[in-house]
Design goal:
- It is a single chain.
- The protein contains eleven helices and no strands.
- By secondary structure, the chain is mainly alpha-helical.
- The radius of gyration is 29 Å and the shape is elongated.
């Protein structure tokens, strides 16, 4: 039996169901079609970028959404509730964990930059801003007035 084409009505229903964040098996069940055929048809009808935006949110996190991470729900549950991708939720959880740890460390010890004298910081920034050739990178910066090769040849002892 040859495959039956999608009708314009089925196309509009397909797009509408996908924008409601239904899974491909659910959409296939509603249309009486194979889920893979539905996904393939949707990808031909709608550009890929719109599919990503239709299935997950890519905007900034609100305070209310961030507080939901502390509610005791798992990452997949939160992703479904918020309409965000699982990767986005996991990334936000990791970011919050790392931020908390960094804040605790900063309370225990002062920032490392405060311990370095300002003239050393200025010299470091000057060296990083100056262009360096490969010899200087491998041999180290020589004293003023000398070449990096002088050190290798024994002129600098």
């Amino acid at each position: 039996m040859p495959p039956v084409s999608f009708s314009p009505e089925q196309d509009s229903v397909l797009i509408e169901l996908r924008h409601q964040r239904m899974s491909w098996p659910q959409i296939g069940g509603q249309l009486g079609r194979d889920p893979e055929a539905c996904r393939s048809r949707f990808n031909r009808l709608v550009p890929k970028q719109d599919d990503r935006r239709a299935t997950s949110r890519v905007d900034m996190w609100t305070d209310e959404e961030t507080r939901m991470l502390d509610g005791g729900k798992t990452a997949p549950e939160i992703a479904v509730i918020l309409g965000r991708s699982l990767e986005s939720v996991k990334c936000k959880i990791r970011y919050r964990r790392v931020s908390t740890i960094r804040a605790e460390i900063d309370e225990v010890r002062p920032a490392a930059r405060a311990l370095v004298p300002p003239e050393c910081i200025a010299e470091r920034e000057r060296r990083h801003a100056a262009p360096r050739d490969l010899t200087a990178i491998f041999m180290g910066d020589p004293p003023k007035g000398y070449s990096a090769l002088d050190r290798k040849l024994g002129a600098l002892a």
